[in-house]
């Protein structure tokens, strides 16, 4: 029974090590993503137009600089992120084809923006 447990443990360690090695390159690349800053402030977006490289994963840092909650949302990109006042977070977006992708603040419908992939 002890040998069986030892083999099982060794197999589990091998699987975890393999997953770590396979996942490590993607973790390293996360720091290398082109990053764009978006400020959301009580119904205002800065900038409302974000130009990004087409064909590359990107990261958008979302900062709520207002006094109300905000929600970054894009139906086209299938992304949403709710932020409390003063909070910040990010969304990672898969490589985009050239074109325009709308986003908005779901809590402040007048706040409309666009990501332009070139």
Structural account:
It is found in: Periplasm. Pfam families: Cupredoxin_1. Keywords: Signal. This is Cupredoxin domain-containing protein. InterPro entries: Cupredoxin, EfeO_Cupredoxin. With 118 residues, the chain is an alpha+beta fold. The chain has a single domain, classed as Sandwich (Immunoglobulin-like), CATH 2.60.40. 25% of the residues lie in helices and 46% in strands. The protein is built from one helix and nine strands. It has a five-stranded mixed β-sheet with strand order 3-9-8-5-6, with no helix packed on it. A four-stranded mixed β-sheet has the order 2-1-4-7, with no helix packed on it. A hairpin with a 4-residue loop joins strand 5 and strand 6. The longest helix has 29 residues.
């Amino acid at each position: 029974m002890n040998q069986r447990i030892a083999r099982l443990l060794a197999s589990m360690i091998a699987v975890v090590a393999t997953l770590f090695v396979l996942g490590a390159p993607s973790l390293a690349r996360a720091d290398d993503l082109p990053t764009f800053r978006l400020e959301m402030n009580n119904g205002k977006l800065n900038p409302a137009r974000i130009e990004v490289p087409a064909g590359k994963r990107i990261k958008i840092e979302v900062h709520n600089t207002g006094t109300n909650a905000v929600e970054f949302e894009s139906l086209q990109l299938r992304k949403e992120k709710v932020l409390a006042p003063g909070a910040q977070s990010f969304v990672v977006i898969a490589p985009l084809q050239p074109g325009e992708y709308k986003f908005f603040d779901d809590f402040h419908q007048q706040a409309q923006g666009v990501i332009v992939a070139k």
